[in-house]
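Predict structure. Chain length: 442.
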Amino acid sequence: MGMDRISEQHQYPDKIHAYSTVSVLVLANIMSFIDRQVPAMLVGPIKADFNISDSEVAFLIGFAFSATYAIIALPIGFAVDRMKRKIVLGSGILLWSFMTMAAVFATSYKRLLGARMGVAVGEAVIAPVSVSLVSDSFPEHQRGKAMGVVTAGVYIGIGISLIGGGYLIDYLTDLGGFTLPFVGHVKPWQGAFMIAGFPGIVIALSALALKEPSRKQIIQHTQSNVIGKDLIDHIKNHKKTLFYLLTGLLFMAMIFYSFSAWAPTMMVRTYGLSLSEVGMKLGIITILASIFGAIAAGTVADKLTERGHKDGPARAAMIACLFALPGIALAPLMESITAAWVLLAIYLFFISSYATLGLLSVGAVSGSAVKGQMTAFFALLMMISGILGPQITAGFTDFVFMDESKLNWSVALTGGLTLPIAIFLFFLSLPHIRNSIDRLED
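Prediction complete.
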């Protein structure tokens, strides 16, 4: 098809510019997930200030953010295909940074919801811009490593927020907040939002200063209707493949987002730890286990593919879910906190593969004209999992166990239900993935 025509004389940028792009994307991912993780560290003070339930907290952490992200994802992907990507990236970072800091003015639950929705609009640029820039900055045999480094930024961000967040909140709480000109008194939890958002301004300026790589794909005649035609046609032509694969990834990501949202509160409620203790230990475990897990996942997927398994990334995702299951199902129920930390490290090592393997799997079954749009569609579905995961866990706590102290059982139950479903769906997807890849290669 003409829309899949590739420039044969594509010039990749030199290594300095290529790795500068990767560096900015890593920093953007780090700050994105720091800003995204902040509310999970502030459940207690936010609940106390606004007198809200766990379900309302889950609505704030999950639905308000993820629904907005889901709505805006495809238009953002459309813009990435047509505009200078550094402009889209820099604008998105500026928006989410300012909206994170806007929590300073949140005097009600609804205003905080609005601010989190603004953060979601900005952060929706990350996935499609990352895939597009990496694809045009590195030849094919180097993209996996580059994308793995970019994806590692997610887990570094989560880890930093957990390690630094707990101490920052404790410090601001001891301080009693602080006063700003023209703003007045800033409560400790509001101050945490403001401090988390500020570094993004510097990263946004760095993004705007990047050298824009030339686009490898030449798809001039689809410029006006890619979203309306090419993406829909691709989904129709590979509907079974995409249904099983994307639904499996959705269930895999569901427990990832649920755990990310509720882990700090769960450890405080179950083991009586302070937020700073939880933040330090969980942060270190998250950084180490998840970074190594993401790298290992990409390596396993590459090895499977080299051995002739065209469905290598999806096969690796199925294996990862299988090994993550006992960790998340048992860790929250351990009486020994040491046993809980060990099992959580195992769980995080395997579940952290979802983003890398998801991007690899979706990219493998996407034609060049729709790769960016499929990335946005994948991100949209992952945000839906971000809505469902925390909300399901909160629902178990509020309506099944009806006891906040049973949050650990709710997390274990969520993982015990979602991961077996994901394993089954990945298994069903394998022959369809091989068929889709064969058709695309023809």
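Summary: Confidence is low (pLDDT under 50) at residues 1-8, 218-224.
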